[in-house]
Amino acid sequence: MDLLLDTPLDMHLHLREGEMLGLVAPFSAAQFAGGVVMPNLVQPVDSLERVRAYRAAIAATCGTTGFAPYMTLFFRDYTSQDLAEVKDEIIGVKLYPAGITTQSEAGVRDFDRIGATVALLEELDIPLLVHGETGGFVMEREQEFLKVYQWLAETFPRLRLVMEHITTAAAIEFLDRFDQVAATVTLHHLLITLDDIAGGLLRQDIFCKPIAKTPRDRDALRQAVLAGHPRLMFGSDSAPHPRHKKERLGCAAGVFSAPVALPALAELFVEAGCAEHLPAFVSANARSFYRIEPPAKTVRLEPIAWRVPDRYGEVTPFLAGKTIGWGVKAPHPSQF
Ligand code: DOR
Ligand code: ZN
């Protein structure tokens, strides 16, 4: 039986710019009603002008109907006037610890100094989206960062806080302690562990930040998502890099999952007998947390075997060469 998804949303997405934007954005625009667009461009999106220019570039690629690009602003010190001006044009502000991932050098170096800007976000009711990792041991970075999340949640109790791309059982436990906190979960962190990346021949295509963790962590994420946790939202963290940046010494972090996200989620939820919880994960939970009304769009998934292409242009997609038991009807931009 086909599966109909009402207004699917991708609440964490890297669309890039230039040629890469043209290659990858049509996949998201075809399959989703909206997406939260990350601001970590080469020049971070950190002003109203940059938000507008980036939105215009996305609209030029995807059109202005059928897909809502929910823009984010790169966290730095802002005045109340800066934020008041940009508030209606963004869905939130995205905080990166400096240097923690791709193009995050302009991120936060000293967390003791962010309080004033965070207080303004709370006052203006602008959500704060956080890449929650310390600079510690790679497998412990997310868990170590929970103390920052705790400080944020306790010091700014009215702030709508999003823990982005959570990967650990500890993060799930933390989420349950604070009602005003939500989290995004990626497809790849529901499917893989560190073993898939480094347990055999090294796999650049699935190397990402935060790194995938242990089977226990993956199972805790799965369990919470499949049980219909009301504050877990799908965010693919689809992060394309061209092959020459992946297949070299010093591989860029990021998994390009936009083309496979909905079919693979359908497979996961249906096989687990939890298909009734998929609509909340890919749409309703986000609509209620962010209070958004995306353009109406129904996406039809059909149970057919679909072999994921080895490449889209210069980018290797997640699950390349694998066969998924579901496909999106009329899913792909015409060039593929
Ligand atoms: O793996 C990742 N890639 N994690 C991030 O946080 C950023 C992203 C990117 O922009 O490539
Ligand atoms: Zn990301």
Write the layout of secondary structure elements.
Elements: E1 3-6, E2 9-13, H1 18-31, E3 34-37, H2 48-62, E4 68-74, H3 80-86, E5 92-95, H4 115-124, E6 128-130, H5 141-155, E7 161-163, H6 169-175, E8 181-185, H7 188-191, H8 194-198, H9 215-226, E9 232-234, H10 243-246, H11 261-271, H12 278-290, E10 298-302, E11 306-307, E12 323-324, E13 327-328
Parallel strand pairs: 2-3, 3-4, 4-5, 5-6, 6-7, 7-8, 8-9
Antiparallel strand pairs: 1-10, 10-13, 11-12
Helix pairs in contact: 1-2
Polypeptide structure, described:
The protein is of the alpha/beta class and 336 residues long. The chain has helices at 18-31, 48-62, 80-86, 115-124, 141-155, 169-175, 188-191, 194-198, 215-226, 243-246, 261-271, 278-290; strands at residues 3-6, 9-13, 34-37, 68-74, 92-95, 128-130, 161-163, 181-185, 232-234, 298-302, 306-307, 323-324, 327-328. An 8-stranded parallel β-sheet has the order 2-3-4-5-6-7-8-9. The two termini are 26 Å apart. The structure holds (4S)-2,6-dioxohexahydropyrimidine-4-carboxylic acid and zinc ion.
